[in-house]
Amino acid sequence: MFLTRLIYASRISDACNAHDMEAILKVAQHFNKELGITGLLCFTGTYFIQCLEGPRQNLNSLYNRIARDPRHLNVTLLEYREVVERSFDQWSMAYAGSTAVDRQILLKHSAETHFDPFSMSGASAFAMLALLSQRLPPSGYLS
Ligand code: FAD
User: Fold this and answer.
1) What pTM was estimated for this model as a whole?
2) Could you tell which of 25, 30, 69 is best to mutate to test the pocket of ligand 1, judged by most ligand atoms within 8 Å of the CB?
């Protein structure tokens, strides 16, 4: 089964609250482990940018499930490609919240003068997530 990487961006919906973030991560860590999926979820306060990597078929099913989740909107695929190795292999789902994400990092990877993940290239989104992952403690969680 091909090792595949997928990155998408979405916008938080009114159906999502602070408690949901913890619930999402708990569920993600549980299911992703079972599916052989690793990755990083970044939340800016408005947008989600998530990288998922793992066996192609499992990744496709998971993405379809996530895309239907009413806690976010405008789910937009930024990158989908076969890769030779994982980049976030330490974590079934790491989390970079607002403490990890600052304006400088967002704008460094943004085509616009304001941060707009929907106009990011897959390569920029990946570079941004890779940079954020370097700020994370070994637990892979920074709220
Ligand atoms: P169930 O938990 O049985 O839920 C059924 C439906 O209700 C689903 O459509 C679900 O999306 C929705 N739902 C569940 N809880 C709520 C709630 N509190 N409010 C409103 N709707 C709700 N899951 C993973 O397994 N791995 C991930 O990496 C992952 N990343 C995510 C990233 C984001 C930004 C979001 C919003 C969700 C993510 N999820 C992830 C959660 C995923 O969408 C599913 O809820 C989860 O996988 C459980 O699937 P299920 O079929 O058992 O749904």
Assistant:
1) 0.95
2) 69
